[in-house]
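WARN retry 2 of 3 for item q-0093 after timeout on previous attempt; input resubmitted unchanged.
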Amino acid sequence: MRDAEATLPATLASVRRQTETRFECWIVDDGSRDGTPALARAAVARDERFRVLTRPAQGLVTALNEGLARCRAPLVARMDADDLMHSRRLELQRLALEREPRLAGVGCHVRIFPRRGLRAGLRDYEAWLRTIDSPRRVREEALVECPLPHPTWMLRREVFARLGYRDRGWPEDYDLLLRMLEAGEELGVVPRRLLAWREHPGRLWRNDAAYAQERFLACKAEHLARGFLAGCERYGLWGYGETGKALRRALEQHGKRPGHIVELHPGRLGETIHGAPVVRPEALPAQPRLPLVVSVAGTFARTEIRATLTRLGWRELVDYVCAA
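OK item q-0093 returned
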C-alpha cells in the first residue's frame, strides 16, 4: 500500500473484528508520504497480531512478494488498504479450504461501493462475478475477465510462494491466477459477498499503464498461446467484432492465426478475412476441426454460443474456450 491514511483505519478495523481470530496481519507500506506509516505502527502497538514492513517505494509486485515472504501460516489472504472485510471472511474461506483439500485457494463475491455514481460497467462486472460459483466456472471464465478479484484471495501459502508475483507489464494478479490454472491448480469460490470493494479515482487499475485494456489482452493472448493453443498455428475464431479483432491481433504476435471465422454479421459472411473464410455457425462442422476461441462481448451472447456448441457436441475447455 501507499498513501492510504484516508482508508487504512477502517480497513484494519475490518480485519481486527474477524470471527477467525487466529491470524497474523502484515501491513506492507511501499514508501508512503502521508500518515500511513504512523497509522500502521499504531495498529501494531494496539494489537500484537499486526506487523508492519516499511520500505522505500519499489512498486506493487515487489511489495507483494516481500509481504508474502514474511507470511508463516499455511493460508494467506490478500487485502487492499482501501477495502473492507466481512467479519466472517477469514473464517468462511478457511473452512472452504479445509473442506476441499484439492483447492489451492478460494475467492469470494464482492459488493462495490460507494453505490452512488457507480458506472454500469462496474455493476455488470459485479453481477458477472456472482455467476462464478465453482472451480469449473473459474476455469471457464478465466480468459473473459479475472474471475476472482485479487483482494478476495485466500491461497495455500505453498502455492502462493512457489509461483509468486512477477512484473510483465500487465496485471500481476491476473497473470498469477492464469499461471495457477495453467499449472493445474484448482481455485474455488465462497459464493457470498465477503468483501466490500471500494471504487475511487485513485485505484491502481485506473492510473497504471499495466492495467490498461490492451495489457489485459496481451496477458490473455500469451496464456492462450502457451496453453489452449499450444502446438497449433491455426485456430477457429468465433466473433469478429471489436473484441474478436483485438484478440486476433494479440494472438498474431505469438504466431497464431485464424483458420476460419464464425460470424452472424451478414456483411462478413462469405468473405475472407486475413486468409480465413467467414462462415455461419451451422457450417462449423464442415470446417477443419481446429481449437475454437469464442471472442464476443456480453454474457448473454456467450451463453447462446455455448448452447449452440453444446448441441454440436463441442466441449468447453477441451474443444473451445471463451476469451473476451
